[in-house]
Amino acid sequence: MPERAISILIGYLCGNFLTAEPVSRHLSGKSAFQIGTGNPGMANMMKQYGFRSGILVLAGDLGKTLLACLVCRFLLFPGTPLPAALYSGLGCVAGHNFPFWHGFRGGKGVACTCAALVCVSPLWGIIACLAGLAGVLISKYLPVGAVLIPGLFVIPAFLCKGTEAGIIAVILTALMLLRHWPGLRNIPSGTEPRMDLLGKLRRGNNE
Q: pTM of the full predicted structure?
């Protein structure tokens, strides 16, 4: 049990590093929370500062989650690799979404969730991420893909990794629903912004 608590703590501390903050401050001198939608994530940074800035934020958020998972899984608790990956990943998502230094108001945790799932199960994690990407490409709504990613991981987690992994997947899905519920609620009324991801990728390649 102590390894689970330590893994959550390490993940949470890593999650508190919001990559969008240094990127935004470097580019404009403003906090990521003062720019655009105020969300310190890839989509907001890409919209405000361009494709490369969004990719940089994505890489940082993926990297901090992978770092937490790998440190806990291979260095600190090699004897219990699955719990180490599960709880450090969960902690990182919680730290990103609810950073203590910003009044527990942070990002939405999509990139962190993706990295956490891949650390737990590379095969099913990648499949879930690709399905979420497909959801965004088809619907053009980021909240749809965001919720699909952990939601589709729940059943494989229970079947392939056990009850504990399934419960963590359910918690990650609940966190994603919590952070994206306003956006999902706006979709029927047409007030949720749509994202042409393929268009952004094409424009980014030309930058």
A: 0.93
